[in-house]
């Protein structure tokens, strides 16, 4: 079997593939790690929450990390099924059904940054006869450029099929007005290697440093919580209280805090 036949974008359109993909714990962990790295590459201010766009948001796993970091976000995805999963999970961001190849329908300067995990390469496929990958990429990048505040960054974690596909993506991004380039983490590792397209809207910036193999933690989840800089452990009482407070600031209905908030229930026999 060739490597190309294993790629999900060659099996069916994204709205179909995402309907049948099951997210196991390992995939969730990887998605969370890539989201964390993408936000790091955004280089956001530490003293204020930002309004971010998540393109190809799926079930909202990346959005969960954005919420944990105290940011507000809006997710766009082509799959109704995946957005339904996000709604069932009660993610804190807003959700929009849309094809990124049709462009981003937002007002100029709406977002402080954009992330996208494992989605951009889908635009390189002509799933319909009317689809032109260069035109769809340019439509996406040009409308995204407009929707970002000047000086904002857009970070795309991608799995390009080959060098030609990577050149097509970057060429259309530059044509739309972006500057920037690729950041390759763990370039000498087959399994850990990750590609991030880092784009700057309106202001040229210095590309971040790559991660090297010696920085790989054998226990990623432990390292993540070790480096959370005093943030509450997930699912603990403080984490729950922080999440409820964020929802109150967003105008959502939240149950009142009680002495039982965050307390583990005794097992039922």
Automatic annotation (TrEMBL):
Subunit structure, as described in the record: Heterodimer with TRMT112; this heterodimerization is necessary for the metabolic stability and activity of the catalytic subunit BUD23. Interacts with GRIP1.
Keywords, ordered alphabetically: Cytoplasm, Methyltransferase, Nucleus, S-adenosyl-L-methionine, Transferase
Q: Where is the Methyltransferase type domain?
A: 53-126
Where can this protein be found?
Cytoplasm; Nucleus
Q: Locations of Basic and acidic residues compositional bias?
A: 235-244, 251-260
Q: According to its UniProt record, where is this protein mainly located?
A: cytoplasm
According to the entry, what is the taxonomic lineage of the organism?
Eukaryota, Metazoa, Chordata, Craniata, Vertebrata
Its name, as the record gives it, is 18S rRNA (guanine-N(7))-methyltransferase
This protein's species is Paramormyrops kingsleyae
């Amino acid at each position: 079997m060739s490597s190309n036949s294993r790629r999900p974008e060659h099996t069916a359109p994204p709205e179909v593939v995402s309907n049948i993909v099951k997210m196991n714990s390992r995939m969730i962990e990887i998605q969370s790690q890539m989201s964390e790295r993408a936000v790091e590459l955004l280089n956001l201010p530490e003293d204020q929450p930002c309004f971010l766009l998540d393109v190809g948001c799926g079930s909202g796993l990346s959005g969960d990390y954005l919420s944990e970091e105290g940011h507000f976000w809006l997710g766009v995805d082509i799959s109704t099924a995946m957005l339904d999963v996000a709604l069932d999970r009660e993610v804190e961001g807003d959700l929009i059904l849309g094809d990124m190849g049709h462009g981003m329908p937002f007002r100029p300067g709406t977002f402080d940054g954009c992330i996208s995990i494992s989605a951009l390469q889908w635009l390189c496929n002509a799933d319909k006869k009317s689809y032109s990958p260069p035109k769809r990429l340019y439509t996406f990048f040009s409308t995204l450029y407009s929707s970002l505040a000047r000086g904002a960054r857009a970070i795309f974690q991608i799995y390009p099929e080959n060098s030609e596909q990577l050149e097509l993506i970057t060429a259309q991004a530059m044509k739309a007005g972006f500057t920037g380039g690729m950041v390759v983490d763990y370039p000498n590792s087959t399994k850990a290697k990750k590609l991030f397209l880092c784009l700057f809207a309106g202001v040229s910036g210095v590309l971040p440093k790559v991660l090297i193999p010696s920085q790989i933690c054998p226990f990623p989840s432990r390292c993540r919580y070790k480096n959370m800089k005093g943030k509450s452990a997930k699912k603990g009482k403080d984490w729950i209280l922080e999440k409820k407070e964020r929802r109150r600031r967003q105008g959502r209905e939240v149950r009142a805090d009680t002495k039982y908030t965050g307390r583990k229930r005794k097992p039922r026999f």
